[in-house]
TrEMBL record:
Compartment(s) of residence: Cell membrane
Main location: membrane
Domain spans labelled Major facilitator superfamily (MFS) profile: 16-395
Bilayer topology term: Multi-pass membrane protein
A GO cellular component annotation in the UniProt record: plasma membrane
Organism: Azomonas agilis
Protein name: Putative MFS family arabinose efflux permease
Recorded superkingdom: Bacteria
Length: 456
C-alpha cells in the first residue's frame, strides 16, 4: 500500500528543498572538481610530486571527517545558520588560499581549510526544520539527487574550467559557489529549531550506533568505495595521458560519455533491487563489478579504448553503490537513530576519501599506476568478502510523530502501532514528546499510522 497525501509541499518547503540542495551540491562540487584535473595539472605546481598530489586530493576529506560530527552536534546547540554561515566562509577562504598558491603545499593548506567547514549535518537538520514529516523523505531524496548530479557535473566542469582558467581559476570558481551558497542561505525561510533524531546527531546514540554490526558493514562499504574512487583518480587521469595518449584538454569528453552511459546503465539495477526487494544481490553484484574494474585497469591500462571501457563500468558501479548505500542506512538504522547513523556514515565516507587519496598518491610515486590499481583491487576484494555475510535489509521506511497531548499510556500506543501489519519498530522519546516508527509502506500508510496514534 503506497501512502498518498492530500496536501503537497508548500512554498516554504519547495524553497528550502531547492535552495539547500543547491548549497549541498556546491559543497560537493568543491570536493569532486579537483579529481579529474589535479593529477595532471597539479604537477606544474612548485614542489609537486604524485604523493603530494594524492595528499592534496585527500586533505579535504580528512578535515571533513574530523569536523563532521562535532559541527553537527554544535549546530544543535547554537543553531543551524551560524554553523552553515561559518562553514561556507571557511570553505571560501580555503578556495582563496588554493587559488593564490603557486606551490603544492599552498593547495594542500587550502584544501585542508576547505574541508574544515563541515556543514552537511547542519544542512540536513535545517531541511528537516523547514519541512513537514510527510514531505521530509521527498526533500531528502531531492538532496541526495543533487549530490549525484554534482559529482557528474564536477567530472565534466573540472577539466573544462581548468583548461580555460588554470587550477587557480578552478579554485576561484569554488569560492564563487560558496558565496552563492551564502546568498541562498540568507534568503532561507525563518524557522524554529526542532529536535529530530532522524536528521540530527545524538551524542547519546553514538556508542550504540557505532557498535551496530549491520551499520558497521555499510560504513565499511562507503569507506572502501570512496577510498577506491580517490586512489583511482590519482592514477586514471595520468594513465589517460601517459598510456592512452589522450591530451588532458580532452579528458572531459571521456568523462561526459562514460558518466552519462554509466548513470543510465545503473538505473535498471536500482529499480530491480527496490521493486523486487533484492538489494543484497544488487549490492554484491556491484561490488564484484568494482573489483573487476580495478583488475581490468591493472591489466589493460595501456590502451585508451580499454581504459574508456573500464571507466564506463567503473562509473556504472560507482553511481549504483553511491545511490544504494544511503538507502541501506535508512533501512537498517534503528528507529530514531538515522541522523546519528548518517553522521557516522558521512565521517566514514570522508575518511575513505582522505586515505584513498593519500595512499594512492604515495603508491603512484613509488611504483606507478599498477600499484594503485592493485591497492584498489585489494580494498574491493576485502569489501566483497565482508559484504557476503550481510542479510537482506528490511524494506522499511521511518516516520516521526508528535505524541498526543495529555497522553499517559505510552505503552498502549506502542502496542497499537505494532499490531498494524508492516510496523516493525516503535521508539518513544519522551524528551521530544515524539515517537519514531519503522514500517513497510507497501503494507501500511503514513496516514493510517497517524490515525491509529490519535485513536490510542
Amino acid at each position: 500500500m503506497q501512502d498518498s497525501f492530500v496536501d503537497r509541499m508548500n512554498t516554504t518547503e519547495i524553497r528550502a528543498t531547492a535552495g539547500l540542495s543547491l548549497v549541498f551540491a556546491f559543497r560537493m562540487l568543491g570536493m569532486f572538481m579537483v579529481l579529474p584535473v589535479l593529477a595532471t595539472y597539479g604537477l606544474e605546481l612548485q614542489g609537486a610530486t604524485p604523493a603530494l598530489i594524492g595528499l592534496a586530493i585527500g586533505a579535504y576529506g580528512l578535515t571533513q571527517a574530523v569536523f563532521q560530527i562535532p559541527c553537527g552536534i554544535l549546530s544543535d546547540r547554537i543553531g543551524r545558520l551560524p554553523i552553515i554561515y561559518a562553514g561556507l566562509i571557511i570553505f571560501a577562504l580555503g578556495a582563496v588560499v588554493s587559488a593564490c598558491s603557486e606551490s603544492i603545499w599552498g593547495v594542500i593548506a587550502g584544501r585542508i581549510l576547505q574541508g574544515a567547514g563541515a556543514i552537511s549535518a547542519a544542512i540536513m537538520a535545517l531541511l528537516s526544520d523547514l519541512t513537514r514529516e510527510q514531505h521530509r523523505t521527498r526533500a531528502m531524496a531531492a538532496m541526495g539527487l543533487s549530490i549525484g548530479l554534482s559529482f557528474a557535473a564536477a567530472m565534466i566542469l573540472g577539466p573544462l574550467l581548468t583548461h580555460a582558467f588554470g587550477l587557480s581559476g578552478l579554485f576561484w570558481a569554488t569560492m564563487l559557489m560558496a558565496l552563492l551558497g551564502l546568498i541562498i542561505i540568507r534568503f532561507m525561510p525563518k524557522t524554529q529549531k526542532h529536535e529530530h533524531r532522524e536528521t540530527v546527531i545524538n551524542r547519546e546514540l553514538l556508542g550504540k550506533t557505532l557498535k551496530n554490526p549491520d551499520l558497521l558493514r555499510i560504513n565499511l562499504g562507503i569507506f572502501a568505495l570512496h577510498a577506491v574512487l580517490m586512489a583511482s583518480f590519482v592514477a586514471l587521469p595520468l594513465a589517460l595521458v601517459e598510456q592512452g595518449g589522450l591530451s588532458r584538454e580532452h579528458h572531459w569528453l571521456v568523462y561526459l560519455g562514460t558518466l552519462v552511459l554509466g548513470f543510465i546503465s545503473m538505473v535498471p539495477f536500482i529499480i530491480y533491487g527496490e521493486k523486487k526487494r533484492q538489494m543484497k544481490r544488487v549490492l554484491l553484484g556491484a561490488i564484484s563489478l568494482l573489483l573487476f574494474c580495478e583488475v581490468f585497469f591493472w591489466l589493460f591500462a595501456h590502451s585508451l579504448w580499454l581504459l574508456i571501457f573500464g571507466m564506463l563500468l567503473f562509473f556504472t558501479t560507482f553511481n549504483l553503490l553511491e545511490a544504494s548505500l544511503p538507502s541501506l542506512i535508512s533501512k537498517v538504522s534503528p528507529a530514531g537513530s538515522k541522523g546519528t547513523a548518517m553522521g557516522i556514515y558521512a565521517t566514514s565516507q570522508f575518511l575513505g576519501a582522505a586515505l584513498g587519496g593519500i595512499l594512492g598518491g604515495w603508491l603512484y610515486q613509488q611504483s606507478g599506476a599498477e600499484a594503485v590499481f592493485l591497492l584498489c583491487t585489494g580494498v574491493s576484494a576485502f569489501w566483497l568478502y565482508q559484504a557476503r555475510s550481510m542479510t537482506e535489509p528490511p524494506y522499511v521506511t521511518s516516520a516521526r510523530f508528535e505524541l498526543p497531548e495529555q497522553q499517559t499510556n505510552l505503552q498502549n500506543i506502542s502496542v497499537q502501532l505494532l499490531s498494524l501489519p508492516g510496523v516493525t519498530e516503535v521508539s518513544i522519546v519522551e524528551q521530544e514528546s515524539a515517537l519514531y516508527v519503522k514500517f513497510d509502506s507497501h503494507q501500511v500508510s503514513w496516514s493510517q499510522l497517524q490515525a491509529t496514534l490519535h485513536r490510542s
